[in-house]
């Protein structure tokens, strides 16, 4: 929404809000899109919309996975976690992976993939309930409540062998604390900077920037849209892990398009756990 250089044109004033959407085809003029089929893609916050093959794809066969879990995971956040961690972060078995916003949609999947790859996984989240969920249900090794604990000390205690991969969803002070503990040749996939999205003043750079030089770090931003042609690989892997119970996903669904504006604010206050979505229609 911000009028700044970014990876997509900003949403124009008074234009419908853009978003990942999932719905049922009511009327079709295209042979590949049967009426009644479930499709998903890039659309707008709306009751009805006109899709094209460029913007909407059939959801495909989901097997035992519920449509809502398939959409919540496969549309954006699952491939973001998959490619960001595996392609950019390149974790190896035995390494220490730290992830912020760890009980969120992307972060909760990142941590579980890192466990599948044999890493020690440390997550930061903003409530005790979120910390309990990622540790007890998702199998993270350590969960740090960054709102109640001293982050530098808690991270140092949780990462006695340093950090090899820091999957950054938030930027800011958590990035700074992680930079300080990075190991030689460590990797930082920069996925998101949510702590600064609503900043009205310039955001200070990390104080521990020198660690990038000293420890020969690779800090690399990525946008999931760049991996569009490799989505089937991510969906196949995630689908298998979900079916095997190795990746668990949580969704938080709010009913009513009229609640979308208030709901999106939950991402910034931390009031959501897992993938936050609006249900426009019951069916
Ligand atoms: N690069 C890409 O292609 C791509 C694609 C999708 C998403 N993203 C980015 O990935 C990140 C996670 O997105 P998501 O959709 O999975 O959202 P999410 O993690 O489900 O929700 C955002 C979470 O961020 C945490 N948060 C908010 N403000 C914070 C702050 N100041 N400091 C620390 N944590 C804060 C909150 O959890 P707590 O309770 O833990 O604070 C909140 O629940 C976002 O930065 C998003 O922009 C990037």
Describe, in plain words, how this protein is organized in 3D.
By secondary structure, the protein is an alpha/beta fold. It has helices spanning 67-89, 105-116, 128-137, 151-158, 172-181, 210-214, 231-243, 260-264, 266-269, and strands at residues 18-24, 38-44, 56-58, 96-99, 120-125, 142-145, 163-167, 182-190, 218-221, 251-255, 275-279. A 6-stranded parallel sheet has the order 6-5-4-7-8-9, sandwiched between helices. The chain has a 3-stranded antiparallel sheet with strand order 1-2-3, covered by helices on one side. Helix 3 links the parallel strand 5 and strand 6. Helix 1 (67-89) packs across helix 7 (231-243). The protein is globular. 35% of the residues are buried. Residues 76-77, 80, 100-101, 103-107, 125-127, 130, 169-170, 174, 191-192, 194-195, 222-224, 267-268, 270, 272, 276 line the site of NADP nicotinamide-adenine-dinucleotide phosphate.
Secondary-structure content class: alpha/beta
Ends: how far apart? 30 Å
Instruction: Walk across the major sheet and give the strand order.
Output: 6-5-4-7-8-9
Q: What's the story with the biggest beta sheet?
A: 6 strands, parallel
- In which range does the helix fraction lie? 25-40%
Bound molecules: NADP nicotinamide-adenine-dinucleotide phosphate
Name the poorly predicted regions.
Answer: none
Number of helices: 9
- Provide the gyration radius in Å: 19 Å
Q: Estimate what percentage of residues fall within beta strands.
A: 15-25%
The coarse overall form would be globular
Number of strands: 11
| SSE succession | EEEHEHEHEHEHEHEHEHHE
What's the average pLDDT? 96
